[in-house]
Amino acid sequence: MTDITRVEVGDATLFVEARHLGPDSEREGLGDRLPDLSGVTEALSSFAVQIGDALHRAAPDRATVEFGCQLGLDAGKLTALLVQGTANASLRVTLEWERPPR
After folding, report:
1. What stretches of 1-102 show up as alpha helix (H) in DSSP?
2. H or E element: which one contains 20?
3. Within 13 Å and on the Cβ side, how many CA atoms surround 13?
4. What is the largest CA-CA distance in the chain?
5. Which residues, 6 or more positions from 84, have their beta carbon under 8 angstroms from its beta carbon?
């Protein structure tokens, strides 16, 4: 089940679509509590660092990384769903090396 959930981020309010991940009993709502976004930002930061390390080792002249994710809501916390069995999560990496002039 997917719901639109309000999230406070600094001085801004976002409305995000999040899929419930826990048991049906946890789907009754959060009451007055807002879900915590810190798990999403930590996961995305860790993911970016690992991708950056791999790109550094590959040493391309140019790299582009695009990724999309869905959000899940589990026990009042939002989580990033980067890899799942649907077309909604994606990772596209483009690496380019330039040949030195001969």
Report:
1. 38-58
2. strand 12-20
3. 4
4. 68
5. 70
Distance CA(22)–CA(26), nearest Å, equals 6
Please tell me the distance from the alpha carbon of residue 80 to that of residue 40, in angstroms, as a whole number: 5
* 13-31: average pLDDT: 64
Q: What string of H, E and C letters represents the secondary structure of 35-55?
A: CECHHHHHHHHHHHHHHHHHH
Nearest to 17 by CA among 60, 102, 66, 80: 80
Evaluate if pTM is beyond 0.70.
Answer: no
Q: Check: CB of residue 72 under 8 Å from CB of residue 39.
A: no
